[in-house]
Amino acid sequence: MTSTIDAPRSPYSRSPQKRGVNWEKWGWIYMRVSGVVLVVLIFGHLFVNLMIGKGVDALNFAFVAGKLANPFWQTWDVLMLWLALIHGGNGMRTLVNDYATTQLTRGILKSSILAAVVILIVLGTLVIYTFDACPAGSPANLLPSFCSAN
Questions:
Q1: Mutual orientation of helices 61-68 and 71-99 as an angle, nearest 10°?
Q2: Helices (H), the chain
Q3: What is the predicted pLDDT for the residue at 12?
Q4: How far, rounded to the nearest angstrom, does the alpha carbon of residue 70 sit from its chain's CA centroid?
Q5: pTM of the model
Q6: What's CA 149's distance to the chain center, in Å?
């Protein structure tokens, strides 16, 4: 007795003659690798922020400003930001491919996801690398207490 398996619902099929980069395979590999790296980055972030020193009581503007002034923590946070946003965007792209029924809908949704990911990555990276807790020329009454009035 033989039985056949129906073709999957996905409108995308990979023919054996097609050559080039298999983006779905690399997306799948990225999701696994970035997931493992994100677990390490997130738990490291939580451990440093919540367990070391005074714990939650130490979390304030000065603590964040001090961390963002350190190139190590800037790199850590940017890596976490980029990996998380691309990981989430790739997951959403996969959902759109699985559930959007028309080519137009799929294109609009995937373009929206791409735009959101790019905008958030650019804005987040700018905030991390350009953050200044004590900007020059600011009124002294608006500066945090740890800033020296110039």
A1: 90
A2: 23-50, 61-68, 71-99, 103-130
A3: 60
A4: 20
A5: 0.78
A6: 36
